[in-house]
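Justification of resources, computational component.

The compute hours requested in this renewal are based largely on the per-chain cost of generating structure records like the one below. Each record pairs the submitted sequence with a full C-alpha cell output. That output is archived, and it is also reused by downstream analysis tasks.
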Amino acid sequence: MARKGAMTVQEAGRKGGKMTAKKYGPEFYEEIGHKGGQKVKKLINRGKRAAK
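The structure output for this chain reads:
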C-alpha cells in the first residue's frame, strides 16, 4: 500500500492519545473513568427498577 504522506487513522489516534496523556496526566483518565462508571451504575439501577 503506497503512502502519500497522510497518516493512518491508527497513527492519528495514537498521536492524539499520547498528546492527551501528556497534557492532562493520569488523573484525567482516572476522573473520566470514574464518571463513566457512575453513569453505568445509574443505568443498571434504572434498568433493574424498570424490570420490576
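The two ends are 55 Å apart (CA to CA). The chain has a mean pLDDT of 91.
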